[in-house]
Design goal:
This protein is α+β, with helices and mostly antiparallel strands. It has one domain. The chain is built from 5 helices and 10 strands, in the order H-E-H-E-H-H-E-E-H-E-E-E-E-E-E. Strands 5, 6, 7, 8, 9 and 10 form a 6-stranded antiparallel sheet that branches. Strands 1-3 form a two-stranded parallel sheet. The chain has a two-stranded parallel sheet with strand order 2-4. The protein is globular, with a radius of gyration of 16 Å.
């Protein structure tokens, strides 16, 4: 493993640990309709989507934006500022996803009860609130799928609204798969 890969894994670990350590903050309901459109677009590409019922962590993660290409940093500056402004805030997701299969929002107790060994672990999806630029045409979020122990996959997503529809665009220069 290269030093860069090790540093990225360490940085993501710190982000995830910081996000999970904020359980004492009382979350408010998350009701941004555009955010749910984005979640619904991205969720089918997460590994737990192959399960009969997709488990989604109900509490959002509170992380910051560490790894964009220079051109994406410039283009998405408003969305990144909004995304970073959400750090430390937790929200409760609501059943507003438009998916072609059943899903279940799960809380901390259900997550703690899941098996933690990668071979037998039940995977779920966790995500941050969405950071939007002022006119809600650019968006940033963090999404991942832990599967027990150090097993999982996490990444940041950049999206642009094109002809009224959200599309994922390049510009993230780090992804963690373990």
């Amino acid at each position: 493993m290269s030093r860069t890969s090790a540093a990225l894994i360490f940085a993501f670990g710190l982000c995830i640990a910081a996000a999970r350590s904020q359980d004492s903050i009382s979350p408010e309901l998350y009701s941004d309709a555009e955010a749910y459109k984005i979640y619904s677009l991205l969720l089918p590409h997460e590994s737990p989507y192959g399960n009969d019922v997709v488990m989604i962590r109900q509490e959002t993660l509170a992380v910051t934006m560490p790894c964009l290409t220079p051109s994406a940093e410039k283009r998405f500056v408003g969305a990144v500022v909004a995304f970073n402004g959400l750090h430390g805030k937790k929200y409760l997701l609501q059943p507003k996803f438009q998916l072609d299969k059943p899903y279940k929002l799960i809380g901390p107790d259900a997550i703690r009860a899941l098996p933690s060994q990668p071979q037998s672990a039940a995977s779920y999806v966790e995500m941050s609130p969405v950071g939007f630029n002022r006119d809600k045409t650019l968006a940033v979020l963090f999404m991942g799928s832990p599967c027990g122990g150090l097993c999982g996959s996490w990444t940041y997503h950049l999206l642009a609204k094109v002809n009224g529809k959200w599309k994922e665009v390049p510009g993230v220069n780090c992804v963690i798969n373990s």
